[in-house]
Amino acid sequence: MEAGDGTEETPLPLPLTRFQLSEEYGFLLPDPLTELPAPYGPWMEIAHDLPQLIASHRLRSQVHQMPQLSTQHLRGREELHLAHLVLSFITMGYLWQEGEEGTVKVLPRNLAVPFWEVSQALGLPPILSHADFVLANWKRKNPNGNLDTIISLPGGESLRGFILVTLLVEKAAVPGIKAVVQAIRAIVQLDEETLHKALQELAEAIGDMSKALKQMHDYVDPAVFYAVIRIFLSGWKDNPAMPDGLIYEGVSDEPMAYSGGSAAQSTVLHAFDELLGIRHSEESTAFLHRMRGYMPPPHRAFVEAIRRAPSLKQHVLSSGDARLCAAFNQCVSALADFRSYHITIVTKYIAVAAAKAKARRAEPGDRAGPSAGKPPSALEAKGTGGSHIFSFLKSVRDTTREGMISA
């Protein structure tokens, strides 16, 4: 909905509920379901045992014995999201059980057909995405609010840490998402005081996201992330280990290619970029826009609504208000700092970890197989989403900085 296009009074130009956004949790699914209805027991059983099944190389045979279940008993968004989470994790385990040298060309019908149907119902692609891995994959361990994941893959505590720290970054963004909505309303109403406050809140929220991201060092071991976890987030588009994509048996005779999980699939930074009028290079923009196809459609619509709203940057420039200008630049600076810190994390968890893994590979007696932690080499310089990771991240950080208003 475009700001001010109706006569009826809505509390905000962009009511969050219209975009399946929560006041408390933002883009996270509030209190996701942790169990599917009884008919889907066979899926849940396999999903809860994934790390062991993959480590013992038994997942593929378990999937082959799995009954083909109809998706017609799934009711409502929460059940569909849990089904997508479960089927996407099983799919990643099935694909990468034997590492990058042991991939398969076909996803069997009893997994491919229901996964496709659930994906169609949600408007998501049939692959593990940020919407599954983080947004719908959390539960409270106990009444104190300690968090845990619902479904896991190999990687133990480091995988758990990776998912939950990413979740905390999403949670830290929530005041910023609300500030985006308030800022747009303030522009429409020419309320400079509210706009100034909203921009201060946005800058603070982005700073809190950086603080949350720093916890990655405490909970995720780089060697485990690189050698064990990363392959299970890899897709079959722009991946040398699966150059032809994947045939979804019973869905299509032609192989299909989808990108793996990527931080670029998080709606948060897309929303902030659109509000602040950040313009990235053609190549980076093309990749980021492709990643929007991996977001739940209502979240994508939220980003689009911000893009269509009156321009914040133009408003600040034409106001000639030095305070607004400074608050705007504070937001851009915080966003550039967040992206710089993301590069620091990626350097530690991918570049440095890759160099160490390469050195270990050169040592005699190198163990084989993903369960033994043999690091993948196909994506040494690429992100799991298929981007050339460092050139992409640095370009996006630099173009963010260029979004500052010069005095």
Q: Any chance you could write out the topology, listing elements then pairs?
A:
Layout lengths: L40 H8 L1 H6 L3 H7 L10 H21 L9 E2 L1 H14 L7 H6 L3 E2 L6 E2 L7 H17 L1 H15 L3 H22 L2 H4 L2 H8 L17 E2 L18 H10 L5 H11 L4 H12 L3 H8 L2 H40 L27 H13 L6
Helix pairs in contact: 1-4, 4-5, 7-9, 8-9, 8-12, 9-16, 11-16, 12-14, 16-17
Query: Which of globular, elongated, flat, extended, rod-shaped describes the shape?
Result: globular
Number of domains: 1
What structural class is derived from the secondary structure elements?
mainly alpha
Low-confidence stretches: 1-11, 366-372
Query: Largest sheet, described in full?
Result: 2 strands, parallel
Number of discrete helical segments: 17
CATH topology: Methane Monooxygenase Hydroxylase, Chain G, domain 1
**Beta-strand content:** under 5%
Determine Rg (CA atoms, Å): 22 Å
- Second CATH tier, the architecture: Up-down Bundle
Organism: Mesembrinibis cayennensis
InterPro entries: Indolamine_dOase, Trp/Indoleamine_2_3_dOase-like
Keywords: Dioxygenase, Heme, Immunity, Iron, Metal-binding, Oxidoreductase, Tryptophan catabolism
GO molecular function, one term: metal ion binding
Describe this structure in words.
With about 400 residues, the chain is an all-alpha fold. The chain has one domain: Methane Monooxygenase Hydroxylase, Chain G, domain 1 (Up-down Bundle), CATH 1.20.58.480. Helices cover about 55% and strands about 0% of the residues. Helix 8 (about 175-190) runs antiparallel to helix 9 (about 190-215) and helix 16 runs antiparallel to helix 17 (about 390-400). The longest helix is centred in the last third of the chain and has 40 residues, at about 320-360.
